[in-house]
Amino acid sequence: MHGLYNFVRGPLAWVAFILFFGGILYRLISMLLGARKKDGVVFDYFSLYYGLRSIFHWIIPFANRNSRQRPIFTIVTFAFHICLLAVPILLLAHIILWDESFNISWWNLPDSIADIMAIIVVACCGYFLWRRLTQPEVKFVTFASDYVILAIVAAPFITGFLAYHQWFGYKFMLILHMLSGEVMLAAIPFTRLGHMFYSPFTRAYMGSEFGSVRHAKDW
Amino acid sequence: MAEGQVIDGIYFNEVIEDAGLDEGTKKLTPEKIERVINDVLKGETGARLKTYVDTCIHCGLCSNACHYYLSRDKDPTYSPAGKVKQTMWEMIKKKGRVSPTFMKRASQIASTQCCVCMRCAMYCPFGIDIAYIMSVVRRICHLLGITPLYIQDTAHSHAVTMNQMWVKNDEWPDTLQWQEDEAREEIPTTRIPLEKEGADIMYSVIGPEPKFLAQLLYQAAIIFEVAGLSWTMPATPGWDNSDMAMYTMDSEIMGRVKRVHFETARRLRVKKIVMGECGHAFRSVYDRGNRWLGWKMHPFYIEHAIEFYYNLLKSGKIKIAKKYEEPVTLHDPCNVMRGRGLYEMARYVVSEMCADFRDMQPNREHNYCCCAGGGVINCGPPYKMTRMLGNRVKAEQIAATGAKVVIAPCHNCHSGLEDIVSHYKLGTHVKFISDILYEVMEKPGAV
What we know:
The structure holds 2 protein chains of 2 kinds. Chain A is mainly alpha-helical. In chain A, 80% of the residues lie in helices and 0% in strands. Chain A has a domain at 1-6 and 67-194: Up-down Bundle (Fumarate Reductase Cytochrome B subunit), CATH 1.20.950. Chain A is built from 12 helices and no strands. In chain A, helix 2 runs parallel beside helix 11, helix 4 crosses helix 12 (195-213) and helix 6 crosses helix 8 (111-134). By secondary structure, chain B is an alpha/beta fold. Chain B is globular. The termini of chain B are far apart. At the A-B interface, helix 2, helix 3, helix 5, helix 9 and helix 12 of A face helix 3 and helix 5 of B.
C-alpha cells in the first residue's frame, strides 16, 4: 500500500500534470495553427475589446438572457464551477503538499468551508446527472461519454470528502482520491472537459463577430 | 406532411416528398458520401468546426433559442444541439460512412428545419456557432446534389441570370420604366435614373421586386425623389442583391453573384450601395459575399433600407405628414438585427411613422425568427407546414401585442409572416416600412 501511495503521489502525479499542462498547450497550439491554415477569418475579425465584452457577459451570472431564463441552472453551474476550481487550489492539505515538494504556499480555505464546497460540487454533479437522465433536450444529446465525464469530475471530490472524514480507510481513500484527481487532470485536455480552455476562444470569437461586424449584442 | 417515421433506421420527424431530395438520394452511393464528407471536413473546414465540436458539452442550453423547438412542444429533434447530433456529430464519428437516407435526413434538417438565424449562438454559453455547423452540412448536401428542389431552382436562376427570379435582361429596365411612369402620375418630376455614373447611391433590390412586388420600386422612387437624392439603378445584371446560392452553400455561385453586384457599383462609381428591405440579401452582401471575395470589409458603404430611412427621417429629408393610426408591431429580422444591430434605428423609424407602436416580446436581437429565412421559404410549398407548425411562438408573439399591422423590413420575413398570420388566423396585416412611409410622408410636388 505504501509503495502504491508513493507511486501515485510521485511519478503518477508528474505524469498527470505533464499531460494536463502539455495537453492544453498542445491542443491550443494545434487549434491556433489549424485556424491559421483554414479559418483565417477568426484572426481577421478578432477583437480584444468585443471578445472580452462577450466573455464578461457570460462569466457573470444573470448578465445574459439565457442565464436569467434558467435561474436554477445558473446558480447550480456557477456554484459548481467556482467550487470546482477553488477547492483543489485553495485546500490546506493540497497547499501543504506544494509546500513540502516545492516550498511554495498561498492562502487557504478553512477546512470546514472547503468541505461544504466539495459537497456542493458533488451535489451539482447530481443535478447535472438528473438533467441528463430526465430532461428530453439534454437526454437527446447525451452519450455514454457524458456520464463518464461527469463521473471523472465527481470522483476526486467524493473520494476527497471521504478521505478527509477518514471513512472506509484513510490511506485507501487517499490513494483513490489522488488517482481520480490525476485521471481528471489528464482527461481535461483530451475530452469535452476541454471547454475549460477552449470556451474563452469560442466566446471571444463570437463576441468579436457580433461586436465589430454585426454591431449587436451576443448575450 | 406525415409526422414521425423511422425510414431505413433513420428517424424523420417530418416525412415530406421533395423531388430534389428523393431523386438526389437515389443517386448517392456510400463511397461518394464518404468522399464528399471527408473532402469538406478536411479540405474546407478546420480548427473552427473541430473546436466547436470538441467544446460542446452537450448541455442543451441552446434549445430555448430555437423557434422550431419551442413551437414543436420542445421536441428535442428540433433543438439546435439535437440537429447537430443528427447531422455533423454522426458524420464526424462515422468518418463519413453514413447512409444515403442519413444524408437525406441531414439535408432536410439543415435546409428546412434550421433558418441559420443565429439565435442559438446567443444562447450557447460558449458562443458555438451552430448556424455555421448547419451551413457546413448544407455545403456537403450541395456537393452531393441533395438540395431541396425549389431552392435549387433559385440557385440555378442566380447562376444563369445573376438574379433570383429568372428575370430577363429586357424585363428589368422595362419594369423600372413602367414603375417610373406610374410614379410620375403622382409626382411628375420622379425619375428612376438608370446607369447614371457618378451618382451618390446605387439602389439594389431583390429579384422578387420586379417580378411580383413592383409597387416597392414605385415607393422607393417616390422616397428618393422627395428626399432629393442622387441615385441610380443599374440596367445590367448586378441589380439584384439577393443570393439563395448563399443558402444552398453553392459558395462559388454566391461569389459570382456578389462580384457582379459589387462590380456594377464600381462601374457606376457610386459612393454607397443602399439595399431594399431584404434581410438575406443584406447578409450576403454585408457579411458573406465580401468574405468569399477576399474583402474583410466592403469596398462601398453598405446601407440597409432601415438605416437609409433612419437617416432620411433624422435629417428631415423626409417629413411625416400624418402618423399612421393603427396599432403596429415590429418584427426584427435576424440578418439586420442580430446581423447588423439596426434595432434602435428601426424603432426610431417606426415610432416616427406610427402613433401606436407595440414591441413584441422578446425583441431586438432576441426576437424569434420568422421561420422563412435561411432559405427555408425558398424550399417551396412542400415545406409550408414545416414553417407553420415550426413557428407557433411567432404567432403567439404577434397576437400578444394586439397590433393590427406587423412591420417586417425583410422580404423573407414578410412572406413567412403573411403565411403565419393567415394560418393562425391572427387577422393582422404584414407591411414593409416603405409601405407605411410612402403612405404617411409629406410629398411636396405631388399632383
